[in-house]
Amino acid sequence: RAFFIFVSAGPAVTRLVLPACRSSALTIVFHVHAQVGIQSSSTVSEAPPLTSDRPKCGMAATRCSLTAPLLVSLLSVALTNTGAWASPGAGARSDAKPPNILFIVADDLGWNDVGWHGSEIRTPNLDELAKAGVILDHSYVQPICSPTRSSIMSGKFVSHTGIQGLIHSTRPCGLPTNITIIAEQLKRLGYSTHAVGKWHQGYCKPEFTPSHRGFDTFFGYYTGAEEYFTHVRSDHVGNESWHAIDFHFDTPENFTAVRNMNGTYSAYAFANHAIDIISQQDAATPLYLYLPFQSVHAPLEVPDQYPAKYPDIKNKNRQLFAGMVSALDEAVGNVTAAWKKKGLHDNSVIIFTTDNGGLVGKGGNNYPLRGQKFTLWEGGTRGVAFVSGPLLNKTGYTYPGLVHAVDWYPTLVELAGGDVSGLDVDGNPMWSHFSNNVTSPRTSFPYLIHNESQTFVIRVGAWKLMVGVANDSKGEKLWIDVFRALCPVQELGRPYPITLCHNRDIA
Question: From CA 297, how far away is CA 320, in angstroms rounded?
Answer without folding.
Answer: 12
